[in-house]
Write a structure and sequence with these properties.
The complex is a heterodimer of chains A (248) and B (335). With 248 residues, chain A is an alpha/beta fold. Chain A has one domain (8-239): Rossmann fold. Helices cover 33% and strands 25% of the residues of chain A. Chain A has 9 helices and 10 strands. Chain A has helices at 46-53, 76-82, 98-103, 118-130, 146-160, 176-191, 203-209, 227-230, 233-239; strands at residues 8-17, 20-30, 35-39, 61-66, 69-70, 83-86, 164-168, 195-199, 212-217, 220-226. In chain A, helix 4 crosses helix 5. The longest helix of chain A has 16 residues, at 176-191. The two termini of chain A are 30 Å apart. Chain B is globular, with a radius of gyration of 20 Å. In chain B, helix 9 (214-220) packs across helix 13 (278-302). Chain B has a single domain, classed as ABC transporter involved in vitamin B12 uptake, BtuC. Chain B has 14 helices and no strands. The model of chain B has no long low-confidence stretch (mean pLDDT 90). Chain B has 335 residues and is mainly alpha-helical. Classes of the chains: A alpha/beta (248), B mainly alpha (335). Chains A and B meet through helix 2 and strand 6 of A and helix 9 and helix 10 of B. Chain A: Residues 8-243 form the ABC transporter domain. Chain A: It comes from Komagataeibacter oboediens. Chain A: This is ABC transporter ATP-binding protein. Chain A: Keywords: ATP-binding, Ion transport, Nucleotide-binding, Transport, Zinc, Zinc transport.
Chain lengths: 248, 335
């Protein structure tokens, strides 16, 4: 773990869905230059935690801090300029081209502009080149494979230009080669000063690739530390043990 | 705008201009294109007291042509906006009850014996009231749920359709009921220069404002939460666009009665021409919708000695166009 100040921080956060507690007293910080993996069994609260980090949900107790200010201080556009999100692959109903989809990453910059400005087009072209998918630019997104869609969504996040990148199970649907290229890209981004947070169901890869792991169980942070040290069989047995009496 | 978008935009504008001149020539008092162009170019130098060409052209045909273009454009843009907001290609402007509400308002005005202006005003207010009721129902349960919004619209449509049936039941069958039925069939016969003057400004402003939201509407296609991570104020955009599209649709019913299918079919034709991006779909829908209703109105005026309600023609032609383009549309949809 590096010693810089967290750019995104949860401070004693609790969250309820109805009367059911989903997260209890969760505190963690995300730093630039660091790759953080978020692991836990299904129902542990990972998705809720991501929604809080993205500012899509407000905590019932505690505070979420972004760049030293409470999340509520920032407008939706200002959050989008700082945090980019890569969801799991999906497709809209209408056949937008890959360039259109990546261009959506520039919406926070000029939402009412009739077309992308020159610097927006440059950002889109750069993101497409970074992901090596420039040749797909004119293709309908709806006709792409799962791996190609994941690459397009990652390119959109890069075009968005934030310094925090949050990914929801980014390796889903990728073959071995695509996963290796994805991890290499995430490492490059971290070295350039991005903060990377990703949920994953692959602890073996996470131990190899990520700097840090946060283990979530029953809506609480079970462990938070160096990925290689934490993601060992005895800890994973504890993490993924059957959740009898689960609170989620 | 892409080259394709620019070419399609220019062709649409040129097509609308040519069709407008042709429409001005058609009718019982036939005019030559040269007469129409000459009259347009000498509009400030009309003979004292006016001649027949000027009277027919400026008193009847041009307001009607303008009305057809405005109503067709407004319904098409409202339909395209609704389809984008609800992420559903089968949605039309009537989804939240605006058409049922506007029809009920018009019927109420006719039953109360109001003049045309009063009927139009009540129709407009009825359309807004129906959508407000549908949105209110949705807000009572879950303001953020699109499904609840659709349920609210269904409830509102059913309620106002029931009110409309009740008004038809109590209306005088000799005078009022035929007027209600004729209104509901849709017609441009009541478009006067004054009515057109009231219609043009809000329709143009509405189309420009909705088109300006085009790129954000594209982002909305990715889902609400993802759209928020892209910086889009989802709820403000959704309700703002619904409000703008509702005003446009309600104005069309106030001026021309119920004209269906255009709001459903034309946006699909526009997507075939310029692709799915709403920044292009919305203005091209306006152009294509204007041309479509103008062509329908030409047929309504000229197919028989008695004028046929334009709503009937639009319904029939709309079905034909939709069936013709459906195989092309399915290729583009994910499902």
């Amino acid at each position: 773990m590096n010693g810089s100040q967290p750019v995104l921080r949860l401070d004693h956060v609790g969250f309820h869905r109805g009367r059911r507690a989903v997260l209890h007293d969760v505190s963690l910080g995300v730093r630039t230059g660091e790759m953080t993996a978020l692991l836990g069994p299904n129902g542990a609260g990972k998705t809720t935690l991501l929604r809080l980090l993205l500012g899509l949900a407000r905590p019932d107790s505690g505070q979420v801090w972004l760049d030293g200010q409470p999340m509520a201080h920032w407008s939706r556009r200002e959050v989008a300029r700082r945090i980019a999100y890569v969801p799991q692959g999906h497709a809209p109903l209408f056949p937008y081209s890959v360039r259109d989809i990546v261009g959506m990453g520039r919406l926070a910059e000029a939402p009412f502009a009739p077309r992308l400005r020159e610097r927006d087009r440059d950002a889109v072209a750069h993101a497409l080149a970074e992901l090596s998918i420039t040749h797909l630019a004119a293709r309908p997104y709806t006709e792409l494979s799962g791996g190609e869609r994941q690459a397009v969504l990652l390119a959109r996040a890069l075009a968005q230009g934030g310094h925090i990148l949050i990914l929801d199970e980014p390796e889903t649907g990728l073959d071995y080669g695509q996963k290796q290229r994805l991890y290499a890209l995430l490492r490059r981004l971290a070295q350039r000063g991005h903060a990377i947070v990703a949920t994953t169901h692959d602890p073996v890869q996470a131990a190899r690739i990520f700097d840090r792991a946060i283990l979530l169980r029953h809506g609480r942070v079970m462990e938070d530390g160096p990925a290689a040290a934490l993601l060992v069989p005895v800890m994973l047995d504890r993490l993924y043990a059957p959740q009898g009496g689960s609170e989620e | 705008m892409t080259l394709r978008g620019s070419v399609v935009g220019c062709l649409c504008a040129a097509g609308l201009l040519v069709l407008s001149v042709l429409s001005a020539c058609l009718g019982r008092f036939a005019l030559q294109p040269g007469q129409v162009l000459h009259a347009l170019l000498t509009v400030g130098h009309a003979p004292a007291g006016g001649d027949m060409v000027h009277t027919v052209l400026f008193g009847a045909r041009l307001p009607r042509i303008g009305g057809a273009i405005c109503v067709g454009a407004a319904l098409s843009v409202a339909g395209a906006a609704y389809q984008a907001v609800f992420r559903n290609p089968l949605v039309s402007p009537g989804l939240l009850g605006v058409l049922a509400g506007a029809g009920t308002g018009a019927a109420l005005g006719i039953v109360w014996g109001m003049g045309h202006a009063g009927v139009a005003a009540l129709s407009f207010l009825g359309g807004l009231a129906a959508v407000a009721f549908g949105v209110g129902v949705a807000q009572m349960f879950d303001a953020a749920s699109m499904l609840m919004l659709i349920f609210g619209g269904l409830i509102s449509s059913a309620l106002f359709t029931a009110f409309l049936s009740l008004l038809k039941y109590v209306a005088d069958p000799q005078n009022q009921l035929p007027d209600i039925v004729f209104w509901l069939l849709g017609s441009l016969t009541q478009v006067t220069p004054q009515a057109l003057g009231v219609l043009v400004g809000p329709v143009v402003v509405g189309i420009v404002l909705l088109s300006a939201c085009g790129r954000m509407l594209d982002g909305l296609a990715m889902g609400d939460e993802e759209a928020r991570t892209l910086g889009i104020p989802v709820m403000a955009l959704r309700y703002g666009v619904i409000g703008g599209a509702t005003v446009l649709a309600a104005m069309t019913v106030a001026v021309a009665g119920m004209i269906g299918w255009i709001g459903l079919v034309v946006p699909h034709v526009a997507r075939l021409l310029v692709g799915p991006c709403n920044m292009r779909v919305l203005p091209v829908s306006a152009c294509v919708g204007g041309m479509f209703l103008l062509a329908c109105d030409d047929l309504a005026r000229t197919l028989s000695a008695e004028e046929i309600p334009v709503g009937l023609i639009a319904d029939l032609l709309g079905v034909v166009v939709f069936v013709a383009v459906l195989p092309l549309l399915r290729r583009g949809w994910r499902a």
